[in-house]
Amino acid sequence: MRVAVMSDIHGFSLALDAVIADLEATGPYDLVIVAGDLCEVGPDPAGVVARLWARPRWIVLKGNTDDDIVMAAETSQEWFPGHQIGPEGVRWLSSLPLTHRVQPPGEPAVSRSLLVAHANPHDLRGRLDPAASDAELREVLGGASFGTLAFGHVHISYQRELDGHELVDVSAVGNPKDGDLRCRYGVFTWEPTAGRWRSEIRRLPYPLDATLAQIRASDLPDPDKVARVLQRASY
Questions:
Q1: Exposed e or buried b for every residue in 78-91, given b needs 16+ CB within 10 A?
Q2: How far apart (Å, rounded) are the C-alpha atoms in residues 66 and 36?
Q3: Could you give the CA distance from residue 130 to residue 166 in angstroms, rounded to a whole number?
Q4: Is 73 buried (19+), middle (13-18) or exposed (0-12) by CB count in 10 A?
Q5: By three-state DSSP, how is residue 113 classified?
Q6: In this structure, are residues 138 and 118 in contact, taking their beta carbons and an 8 Å threshold?
Q7: How much is the mean pLDDT over the chain?
Q8: N or C: which end of the chain has fewer CB within 10 A?
Q9: How far apart are CA 179 and CA 224, in angstroms?
Q10: Cα–Cα distances in Å, from 182 out to 69, 134, 152, 233?
Q11: pLDDT recorded at residue 63
């Protein structure tokens, strides 16, 4: 069983296209899961939504910025992704689930499942920071049961063992923050002999020139700032 998990597209539709092309080249996958933060920041939130709607078999989860869009859609008078994706898009964001659990074939134990969430298994904002101590991570995880946890939110890809389980930050598709401006996503393969998921983070060349042109042609309120922040690839 092979599962692809991506997160944090953030309105960068051309980066999403790069991931889609790689999925098509390396597939098939039993499941593709998108772990939230779909629209806010980049130049083409509507294009991101259209691409996801064109793939109804994909499982799409909610992220914190998706929740922000839903909360602010009726009140924001400035440029806002909610205006770009329209009422139907906002309703879709509102309907998205927070987590998805994948049980391996013939393996009913929850402790061997692949659990996917945006930030952590309990809420949309608590960070599983790569520099956090084991104790700090346990506090955020709050006793959640899984074999492997795939998530995003931090925009810094990493793989880490904790108490015999694995944490994998697969982000970000659209705007990485670890100094490496490449699109990335995670691939999880169930290995029945070992009784665990094997994880891989795939990194792809970022379509930078085309994305910068898209930013300049957009109606973002400060396109130069968006371009600078994207290219810095760090907080």
A1: eebbbbbbeeebbe
A2: 7
A3: 12
A4: buried
A5: coil
A6: no
A7: 96
A8: C
A9: 19
A10: 26, 28, 15, 9
A11: 98
Residue 183 pLDDT greater than 80, yes or no: yes
Ordered strands of the 158-162 beta sheet: 99-102, 114-117, 148-151, 165-169, 158-162
Q: Do you know the residue count of the chain?
A: 235
Residue 76 has pLDDT above 80, yes or no: no
Q: So what's the architecture of 2-232 in CATH? A: 4-Layer Sandwich (3.60)
Res. 81 pLDDT band, cuts 50 70 90: confident
- Judged on CB neighbours under 10 Å (0-12, 13-18, 19+), 158 is middle
Q: What does the longest C-alpha to C-alpha distance in the chain come to?
A: 56
Mean pLDDT over 123-145 rounds to 97
The pLDDT of 91-112, averaged and rounded, is 96
Which tokens go with 153? 């939110």
Contact predicate 65/74, CB 8 Å: no
**Distance (Å, rounded) from C-alpha 226 to C-alpha 49?**
20
pTM of the model: 0.97
Looking at the chain, the whole-number percentage of residues with pLDDT higher than 90 is 95
| Domain locations in the chain as residue ranges | 2-232
**In this structure, how many other beta carbons lie within 10 angstroms of the beta carbon of residue 161?**
9
CA distance 149 to 188: 10
| pLDDT class of 228 with cuts at 50, 70, 90 | very high
